[in-house]
Amino acid sequence: MDYFQGVVTDYLRADRAMFINTECCIQLNPGHNPDRTGHHWYCDAVAVNFRTREVFLCEVSYSKSLNALLKRITGWNEHWTQLKQALVRDCAVPGDWHVQPWLFVPAELQPGLERKLALLPKTDGQGALVPTAKITALENILPWKYPSWNRIAEEN
Fold this sequence. Notes:
Elements: H1 3-13, E1 18-27, E2 40-49, E3 54-60, H2 67-78, H3 80-91, E4 98-105, H4 110-118, E5 134-137
Parallel strand pairs: 3-4, 4-5
Antiparallel strand pairs: 1-2, 2-3
């Protein structure tokens, strides 16, 4: 885990209804060894909000190109139905809860990321609608910008 992943998880955890699983393995096919089951990803953090009944697949990047992040989101989009099924199967996420990517990037990279994400297909390979990723600027989650004991999920 890099430094800013810790800053992001502290930010998420400050909302007392949010529970975090860092470096969570999401594997599309069941099995004991993800390397032998096909597609899988280690998500920076899976954040489950019990207040709003939502699950966020959180990724953190400050790479100028954001290529790795875009590759990750493209893979998730292509396999969205299977990804949600994996969360239900392996993480015991209720099947009717909303699942959405939540990306944390520097503010200066946000407009370019939004343009690139807009070019991705809106449905996965099985025709399921893929939700638009929520994007938050890393500068907005610095520890002195919110109360650490009870952050209420603000709009970012």
